[in-house]
């Protein structure tokens, strides 16, 4: 764990030091204010699950854990086979998996469309192909894994809407795929942002996302995140 995490943190720390020296230190993935989807899912009862991939799952999980109506947000892997769903194997970039977050939510409190809006606006940069900030490889790709036709229609329509609005400087590269399986990541990856707020990678890449969520989506923000560790106690 330390070897893998140190590599991720070392890249970020080096970038931070260069930026500070140049007087240009800032979050690498600035949020973009975007309109809500014109199409959303019809109201439904019960809990629904959405799976998002947008770079390192630490920050994506941390963002959704602070969204009202989210009942759980679990870091894991999607897009590949069960037997390759480990951090060491996924980090090779050869498994087909993407670091992902499974978000369970109450549609009566927060809609799938709102989660998509937060995903594209705050959680990651949807124009970066097979990377996010300092993290490179297909395991860091931008993807939405849908569990039904309704989610697929809303996600695809929203991407088309955002592309036509030209709110991003580059084309959106997010892929919409059917969810064939989600596999929770190792325990040490869960709640990483909350448990390690001073970790260099988190400070530089992910804490600004939480600030942006609070500023851009004040009605959806909750100060106390819903944590995987608390759900197990």
Identify the notable features of this structure and list them briefly:
single chain, 233 residues, alpha+beta, Peptide Methionine Sulfoxide Reductase, Chain A, six-stranded mixed β-sheet, two-stranded antiparallel ribbon, 8 helices, 17% strand, globular, disordered N terminus
What can you tell me about this protein's structure?
- The chain is of the alpha+beta class and 233 residues long.
- The chain has one domain: Peptide Methionine Sulfoxide Reductase, Chain A.
- Helices cover 38% and strands 17% of the residues.
- It is built from 8 helices and 8 strands.
- It has helices spanning 2-22, 57-65, 87-90, 112-123, 149-165, 192-195, 200-216, 228-231; strands spanning 48-54, 70-78, 98-105, 131-132, 135-136, 142-146, 175-178, 182-184.
- The strands form 2 sheets. A 6-stranded mixed sheet has the order 7-6-1-3-2-8. The protein has a two-stranded antiparallel sheet with strand order 4-5.
- α5 links the parallel β6 (142-146) and β7.
- α1 (2-22) packs across α7 (200-216).
- The longest helix is centred in the N-terminal third of the chain and has 21 residues, at 2-22.
- It is globular.
């Amino acid at each position: 764990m330390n070897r893998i995490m140190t590599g991720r943190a070392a890249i970020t720390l080096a970038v931070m030091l260069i930026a500070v020296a140049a007087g240009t230190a800032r979050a690498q993935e600035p949020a973009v204010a975007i309109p809500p989807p014109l199409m959303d899912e019809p109201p439904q009862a019960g809990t629904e699950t959405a799976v998002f991939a947008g770079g390192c799952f630490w920050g994506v999980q941390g963002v959704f854990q602070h969204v009202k109506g989210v009942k759980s947000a679990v870091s894991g892997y999607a897009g590949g086979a069960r037997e390759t769903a480990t951090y060491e194997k996924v980090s090779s970039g050869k498994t087909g998996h993407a670091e992902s977050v499974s978000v369970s939510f109450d549609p009566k409190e927060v809609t799938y469309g709102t989660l998509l809006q937060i995903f594209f606006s705050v959680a990651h940069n949807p124009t970066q192909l097979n990377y996010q900030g300092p993290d490179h490889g297909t395991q860091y790709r931008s993807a939405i894994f849908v569990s039904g036709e309704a989610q697929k229609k809303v996600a695809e329509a929203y991407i088309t809407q955002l592309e036509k609005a030209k709110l991003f400087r580059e084309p959106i590269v997010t892929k919409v795929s059917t969810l064939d399986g989600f596999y929770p990541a190792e325990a040490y990856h869960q709640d990483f942002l909350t448990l390690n707020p001073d970790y260099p990678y988190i400070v530089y890449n992910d804490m600004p996302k939480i600030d942006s969520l609070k500023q851009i989506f004040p009605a959806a923000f909750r100060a106390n995140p819903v944590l995987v560790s608390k759900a197990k106690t």
